[in-house]
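Fold it.
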Amino acid sequence: MHPPPARPLGAGAGAGAGAEAVVRAGAPASTPRPGPAGTGARPRLLVLRALGLGDLLAGVPALRALRRAYPEHEIVLAAPAGLAPLAAATGAVDRVLPAAEPGRAVPRALDWAGPPPDLAVDLHGSGPASLRPLTALRPGRVLAFAAPDGPPWYAEEHERDRWCRLLTAYGIPADPDDLLLPRPPVPSPAPGAVVLHPGAGAPSRRWPVERYAAVAEALRARGLRVVVTGGADEGDLVARLAKDAHLPDTDVFGGGLPYDRLSALVAGARAVLSGDTGVAHLAVAHAAPSVTLFGPVPPSRWGPPPHPRHRVLYHPGPGGDPHGDTPDPALLRITADDVLDAVDALSEAP
């Protein structure tokens, strides 16, 4: 969630910027549709947010504001192809234009075909790097922090507020709280379970596995079902947690669940416990009770909106590196008892 952010759904970042495809937002990401980024007479609006799962979820309020402001436009989202199902679920995106770079860098170019977009919106970054691939398409107009008429950028601003403020500065009303997703169309593979997601985009944001295991064992001793999830590249992490917590194979969901199953699992969870990563945002989007462990980045920048069903744990300290190679000291100050107390508080919430 912090550029370069965690990979969406634990899978690869998606097709590169040179992929000659546009993915229908309502279709599986594995079925690209060749051809231009739109055909028909509708005016086209291109949005750049070529980041990860949590980043896209944080941008949902801004995307919906654009949908309301431009109902006649075809809205094309430049993002990793694997996020097409989520883009469809927002109700704000018509198509996904596959866009990603190794290491989650800003796309150097966008594989746009046909006439220039009527409007381009930079929901990706603050400077010329993210503005450049949009202006290269010669859109009719650009909305961006880095544009000559763009508003100032505030580094410490909450991510949802930031992009809504950008649009508001251009006269487009946007509500940072407009972030809930509809109920998933498929059933949960583990309804009522406590979901533990130990992974994150960098080791600095990964709470130690042995502490997750201690929490899992304590919750199972209370008679609760505990399941663990992980991305396609987090198999060792998931396996270690499952082994240490003595979880049966039926409660291990590694390998990067497809979006529909992950979404259903989170939506139907008794609680979701994770670090500062995309699954935490998915819990918020589905109004699922959650406990999110923060460090080094504070919840004031990426945390859930204030609500009794969402608990954040954070012990402030000197600023750390969100892309560091070892768990951040602020994260390590969180104990297993802290997490269990937060779960108890969720149970007592109205």
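The first strand starts at residue 23 and ends at 24.
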